[in-house]
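User: Modeling request: complex.
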Amino acid sequence: MSDRKPVLEFRGINVHYGPVHVLKDMDIAIYPGELVCLLGGNASGKTTTLKAILGMVQPSSGDVLIDGEIVTDDTTAEIVTRGVTMVPENRRLFKRMTVKENLEIGAYLRTDRENLDAEMEHIFEMFPRVKERLSQKAGTLSGGEQQMVAVGRALMAKPKVLLMDEPSMGLAPVLVQQNFDIIERINNEGVTVFMVEQNANMALSIADRGYVLLTGRIVLDDTAQNLLNNEDLRKAYLGEAE
Amino acid sequence: MTDTLDRAHTTSELTPDPVDWSKVQRWGAYAGLTLAFIAATGMTLTFHQRMIIAPWLTMGAVSMAWVPVVYGYIAASRPTPDGEDHYQPAERELIAGGVTGLLSGLFVSLFIVIIDQFDLTEVFSKTGQPLVDLLTFGKPLGVACLLWVMGLGLLGLFGGALHIFSKTIRRVLSWAALGVLGVAMLELVITNLLDGLSLDWLVDWIYAINGGVTSIAAIVIGVAFGTIGYFRGDTTLHERRLERMALDPSVLRQKNRWAIAMVIIAVIVVPMFAGNLTNELLSNVGLFVLMGLGLNIVVGYAGMLDLGYVAFFAVGAYTTAILTSANSPYWSPELTLNFLKPEGWIILGVVIIVAAIAGIFVGTPVIRMRGDYLAIVTLGFGEMVRILFLSDWLAPYFGGAQGIRPVPSAEIGPVVIEGTNSQSIFYLVAFFCAIAIYVAWRLEKSRTGRAWTALREDEDVAEAMGINTTASKLTAFVAGAILASFAGMIFAVKVGSVFPNSFKLLVSIVVLVVVIVGGMGSIPGVIIGAVVLIGVLGGPTQPGLLQEFGEYKLLIYGVILVVMMLKRPEGLWPSLRRQHELRHDEMSQDAWLTGESELTGDVPEDEAGGTVLTDDVAVVEDDEL
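Assistant: Request completed. Predicted assembly structure:
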């Protein structure tokens, strides 16, 4: 693994919100084709991490690298163009726009307009239900369908790296499982996935590797299997009493 | 749940509910207060000067008489069971309407006694002796009060009785009444137009010498409009729009093309026959259409509430004045605004560039703000621009309170466009409106337009999708600024001068009201909003069609705005998207309340069989995910 170049990398990232030190000396490296999860409780800095990747938050020090190039000062648009997109927490579709319009916004920055239909077909292949709902307002869909559209919207940009913010948030347990199946499937198609989750058990069951974030600092970094077997982690995050 | 609802319906059909006294009391009090308010503000007295049906019905009487009818109708209404459009038996409605009217009569009597006995003119300057004389009909106080109670009681009874009639009769009656009222109110314009067509005899037949429709004409007009109402059918405007939507696209396009062609022909032909007065009104409407379309880009498309829009209007006007006027205090190149010569194009170019700079200048600091904050800051900027133009500090450049005048006429080749010839001004305004409509329409459909919609929906996610929020917002600001500056340019030529006081906050507010009343995000909506508000009521400084309303213009603006927000928040002619947005929100609420949550999906059960309550409940479908 170490012989390859990371597709996404954090080098000593610090983020401050005013006086609050949110991310502390964070180092992350994600390699092409991996499925990596970032575990952590509330307010541990998970969402800030994603925002820092997308350039929506400016780090006070440290560098963000995509494909080995420093992108710390790039705009969100430039980073999306480099192939990093996000499925936001709670899906956050443009509820009063149609499903089709939502998908089109996902491809907002693509210059190869002629390939968009093919891209959409690919998404329909993955989620046939989305095709049925194409002209419907996104807000009228069920939670599961909304999740498909949210993922579809992010895939329309044809990303190399897909960031997922709390994919299990606000979904019924059955749907969470299906959602993780989707993530695995996207990963199997060659897209690198970096997923932020509270549901550690679920996330580790599909991930290759995991980072554990505790109040802005990476405290554990191991393979998913090792993390699952880690006693401390089990106690802290997996809610097991013994 | 549905079951109980059904049963409730059935019982209400079998035994009529007793009168809802609390509702009657409430609406009786509302009616009384409304009447006292109308009288106290002096509307009754002012409007009494104007005849509606000569010689016996004045607008003052109408301003009072509608209240018990409408409020009585509302007080007597009840939820209609499906498929039923009038109630039988009807004692309940008659009692409710009549009592509402009587109550309002008591209020008015009390009001008359109060203004007769006490001097309220300190607070309500219009409640002096003339109003007392008018309201007592020159009769003793007791008799007058009795007449008011009985009269309003009867009108309330009529209002309640409207429920007995079938929908068709109600429609015919309202068409006839509104038709007569409309023809009487539009006297100035209709006279003006008919004179232009040399139909003086028709004018003499319709209108009495001292204003107002003659009794015979009133009957004929009433019958004519009633007949139209009878044949017009039941469908509402919204239903008809939906029907149109369902049409085949090619047929629809054909129909639209015809409609647009008709409008264009009307815009070209009507001013030729219209007199100065009508053209003046139309030019004012046009100016506000132009500004409304610009503000619509900022507010309607991009969702940014800009309360300082007048700044760009002022910038356009001042730029034009400085470039063309011989009296510009600091620098006066004295160019001629001739649209067929390079000079004219230079002016137009400079106006556009200056407006764009102003747009960026105002836009940049406020771009990071949202919602209320954005509104407050833009409000400040709008006032700042006016105060800068007014200031002594900049007086050597912009003339301070004296402004710049005269601003010379514009020209198109040999044709002179000047303020005194409102026909020429109208054609100029119409030309720029056409450009603005085209630009707004193209922008709406463009990639930028879609980005604006996304921005309006969820700014954070739009940013995460790679939409450059700063650039998109600035584009909206600049596009809006340029359209407003065109309006400013024409305004300067039309008025022949520019003063800081022409660019008060009120202009921003009126333009915003035009956009809101017409329908945010809708191009035809802006046009209709401008016609209704500016054409009929009048602009901030421009008189409208109903000149008597002048004094009460802002009051009526306020009432219209409140009623619109309560009853029709999507505007008079909403864009389909906005309409859907507002309707959908209501629908999802209703669905949630009644438990028929088709929109959010059924509540799923987890493996244990219990109901899962998450914040966003989702359905599991059986097919592959």
